[in-house]
């Protein structure tokens, strides 16, 4: 029973970590993309 509860807790923590981490990673990629586009406009 405790084992089952522990597995659910781990799944929840993994989901929580992903829901926090993924938007941050996506935001970083967007910033990088915007930075590259600006650089291309300056020196084509």
Automatic annotation (TrEMBL):
It comes from the Eukaryota. This is Uncharacterized protein. It comes from Corchorus capsularis.
